Amino acid sequence: MSYSPQNLLPVDDLIAQLLSSAELSAPENENCPLDAALGRVLSESIISGMDVPPFDNSAMDGYALAWSTKLQDQILTVSHTTYAGQASAEIMPDSAVRILTGASIPRGADTVIMQENVTHSVTDDVVTIQINQQPAQGENIRRAGQDIAKGQLVFSVGTRLGAAEIGLLASLGIATVNVYQRLKVSVIATGDELIEVGQPLVEGQIYNSNAPMLAALLKSLNVQLMRVEHVPDQPERLQEILSLAATDSDLILTTGGASVGDADHLKSVLTQIGRIENWKIAIKPGKPLVWGEVNTRLRNVPLVGLPGNPQSVWVTFLIVVLPYLKALQGQRVRLIPQSVKVPAGFARLKSQGRREYLRVRLIDGQLIPHGMQSSGALMSASWADGFAVVEVGQTFDVGDLIEYLPMSGVFG
Ligand SMILES: Nc1nc2c(c(=O)[nH]1)N[C@H]1C(S)=C(S)[C@@H](COP(=O)(O)OP(=O)(O)OC[C@H]3O[C@@H](n4cnc5c(N)ncnc54)[C@H](O)[C@@H]3O)O[C@H]1N2
Ligand code: MOO
Q1: pTM above the 0.95 mark?
Q2: Whose alpha carbon is nearest atom 4 of ligand 2?
Q3: 252: CA distance to ligand 2 center in Å?
Q4: Are residues 205 and 302 part of one domain?
Q5: How far apart are CA 287 and CA 199, in angstroms?
Q6: Atom number of ligand 1 nearest to Cα 313
Q7: What is the ipTM metric for this complex?
Q8: What is the CATH number of the domain that holds 387?
Q9: Ligand 2: which of 4, 259, 309 to mutate, judged by most atoms within 8 Å of the beta carbon?
Q10: Which residue range is the domain that position 363 belongs to?
């Protein structure tokens, strides 16, 4: 285990430890109808039982014909029309078949010429076309299996189902899939100063924004929220709610009370009813990030204690908790988002001892940071389109390439 300055655990080490601990947990399976499968994680691999498309078909509205080298200027009789949804007929010698997009290619035809490239005439009820342009053999035909071939591995175990995956499963005719059961998560916000929305504030109080934000993040991940609660800074109350949460949750997230203040009780409570794995991470914002577990007679339930500052919650959830949570849900692919190098629109001349996740926007090819980067200020979370990741000890000037983590990749 490597430690950065001030004995802080590097972010990547923490994520690696969390991911390997998640590998030990085995979520249960269930069968799920396709229309309820969005956001779920496959517990089976999907091997295609058919070709997609299932038959050769036309990519254009036009005419199907048997290709030859000298089609230009030829006149062909149009024998009949084949529509999408119909079985294919056979093509007659020296003739063409009127064909619509998606219709099955007639037997004997190997090319579709689009209707814009022919001159169409009708004389005495006989339809003919004159070919204005020599087609390439095979053009405008979508081959059976060109998207998915029968027997192909389409998705491996641990794939999260987004809209594209649902579409692909539907194109295979799959009505139900085996997925992992939804992860049960409890969210506990701590702090005497917290008031729930809708209530009046008195001096010294603030609204509890962390819990609704975490609940929203978790809902977007298809998690089963067991409770979203707020407890005052009283160790007995914290102990009570954590012990209760451990009876029915697969993961407990807390916010606040993670640091070293007199009212920060999370660590002392955890040492009594569970254990602490680590709580000093080289991440800015979010240094006092507690990873531990709550033990009951029957089970040990992992807990991640996020710092109280709302921006620290945003960053630590997205960077640390999200890959871990996805892994606990059974996801095995694309857990860590990819960053790209982009020119900085600002300078960092003094290095620091924690990896920093600045909230930035990519504007005219340069990364511009939000003007308020305090861990207590949340506006930059909504404003930013990504993070600039500044490594421990890194300095740079305007125009230097630095790491950019687009928000789309983080949520991906
Ligand atoms: N002497 C030291 N003080 C602090 C250190 C340190 O190393 N030594 N670390 C600082 C850092 S960095 C952070 S981050 C904070 C985190 O502390 P806690 O996790 O104990 O968080 P709290 O003190 O409970 O709250 C911090 C801040 O956030 C507000 N808050 C809390 N919960 C919510 C909520 N649900 N919704 C909105 N806002 C919330 C709270 O009122 C505080 O302003 O510690 C530093 N101190
Ligand atoms: O690490 Mo804390 O989140 O900067 O204020």
Answers
A1: no
A2: 285
A3: 21
A4: yes
A5: 31
A6: 14
A7: 0.97
A8: 2.40.340.10
A9: 309
A10: 340-411
